[in-house]
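Input chain follows. Return structure tokens only.
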Amino acid sequence: MRDASRMVLHRPHRWHVQQAGAGPDLLLIHGAGGATQSWRGLWPLLVETHRVTAIDLPGQGFTQLGAQGRCGLDPMAEDLLALIRHLTLQPQAVIGHSAGVAVALRLAELGLHAPVIGINAALGNFKGLAGWLFPMLARVMALSPFTADLLSRTASDGAVRNMIRSTGSVLDDAGIAFYQRLVADRDHVDATLSMMAQWRLDPLLARLGQVAVPVTLITAARDGAVPPVTSRDATRIIPGARLIALPAHGHLVHEEDPATIAALIHKSLVP
């Protein structure tokens, strides 16, 4: 979607923004470690009826990180909301994938009163020892100046394919090539590690019962990254939330089957 791309300097970051189409606004927020490329299949199906805006999160994709300490959920949502207002967007809905769903819900808390449509929402923490160990490991890795270099240099095609396969998704060669380029980008890897290290989800989870916008959560049965029960549990807490459980596909279901996800999005937008 490079023809729809532009860079927008709005402190503290230099944002990569993609925008196309006409009609009501839709805002797309990718997950941790992804970028706007993850919407490539949905893009042409959504721009037929809407003005669609996709944004790379701070430091990821082509967005240039302007402040290392603003990769956590709260500062990321604050900076993104400031950009949304700068762009004068008035989303009919905010569509998030994985960690992007948490960002969308935080935007709603901060005053962006638009329905949230979540795809394989990362709205849960690791349990037990992993809940302490994994975030701690991410913080240690993010502090090392050599970690991002090492990961980006050692990410072979096979390693990326195995990483995607572990999510339960099957992508074509073009899809794998996009992730290969992302993982080979030292700045992208560094920003993803910083996001993991600074991520604090518990306060948002404690407030799920206070969410004041309509929420629809879509899950895929073979998601190997975020189990479908995570969204199921969240819909029991979020007032009026709807759960749509798909019988196939993995964490990247919007890349595997964009037609089905686009149809669900359009259906969710009908009053």
